Amino acid sequence: MAETTKNMSAPVIRVKDLYKIYRVGETKVRALNGVDFEIYKGEFVAIVGTSGSGKSTLLNMLAGLEKPTKGQIIIGKTHMEKLTEKQLVAFRREKVGFIFQSYNLLNTMNAIENVALPLSFRGVSKKDRLKKAREFMSLVGVADQEKHMPNQMSGGQQQRVGIARALVVNPQIIFADEPTGNLDSKTTMEVLRLMQRIVREQQQTLVMVTHDNHLASYADRRIRIVDGKITGIETGGRSALEETDKTAPEAQQPAQMEDITV
Ligand SMILES: Nc1ncnc2c1ncn2[C@@H]1O[C@H](COP(=O)(O)OP(=O)(O)OP(=O)(O)O)[C@@H](O)[C@H]1O
Ligand SMILES: [Mg+2]
């Protein structure tokens, strides 16, 4: 759980009056319909909602993959909505890590080359790239998969490689869109535990999108979204690190509802 001291520091992400309206033929889809919230350094925040509620739209805008129709996204001191395409590309490469549901590994590269790839955009030498990539593959428990091509690994192994690739540049913020959506429940818990441990150890901020309430219960805070609007923000999360696989969810402390907005 985030300590109160974290909440007294300046937010790392500020979202103000955010709208994303898609035009489909004659109709307008309000994917985000006026969203405000803040996320603090070192927090693990889940954005929770049903299919079509606007979760991916929101995450893609936070990560600089899409531009808002209206409103502000301030990351650190940077106004994302004011950046040019070129600046957004630089921002994505330098400041954030992204973990996808479908892993998104390059099929023509083996595991270690995939992990090392983000470092090549930074002009790191090949020797140092491979060294760093090897470190992170060890950290996420796939050191023995270096030479494997993506289609020679299980889903869980591919997702670990995807996590190593997101972490290798030591990003301040990690965005994850349904990172365990394609994994079984045991591997899901392993991946969750891994993400929770690493962001804590490295004081990074993790923003995870999910439709799964059980998974979301491990976040420090849950931002609930319905039809492009926030309906509530809950505080208090379980630690996947202290739980064994046998721990029944019912035995845990229920999360507290703190405030309801909109
Ligand atoms: N490029 C687009 N063009 C038009 N409409 C879009 C586009 N992208 C998303 N939408 C619409 O915006 C709404 C929110 O979509 P979004 O992908 O953010 O939902 P989601 O919460 O991530 O859902 P899921 O859990 O199924 O991934 C949906 O109604 C969707 O149809
Ligand atoms: Mg989505």
UniProtKB/TrEMBL annotation:
Q: Which family does it belong to?
A: Belongs to the ABC transporter superfamily.
One Pfam family this sequence matches:
ABC_tran
Query: According to the UniProt record, where is the region Disordered?
Result: 236-262
Q: Which UniProt keywords apply?
A: ATP-binding, Nucleotide-binding, Transport
Q: Which CDD domains match?
A: ABC_MJ0796_LolCDE_FtsE
Q: What is this protein called?
A: ABC transporter ATP-binding protein
Sorted alphabetically, which SUPFAM superfamilies does this protein's record hold?
P-loop containing nucleoside triphosphate hydrolases
SMART domains assigned:
AAA
ABC transporter domain mapped to chain residues: 13-252
Entry coiled-coil feature ranges = none
Which residue spans traverse the membrane? none
PANTHER family given for it?
Answer: CELL DIVISION ATP-BINDING PROTEIN FTSE (PTHR42798:SF6), LIPOPROTEIN-RELEASING SYSTEM ATP-BINDING PROTEIN LOLD (PTHR42798)
Q: Which GO terms describe its molecular function?
A: ATP binding
InterPro entries (UniProt xref):
AAA+_ATPase, ABC_transporter-like_ATP-bd, ABC_transporter-like_CS, MacB-like_ATP-bd, P-loop_NTPase
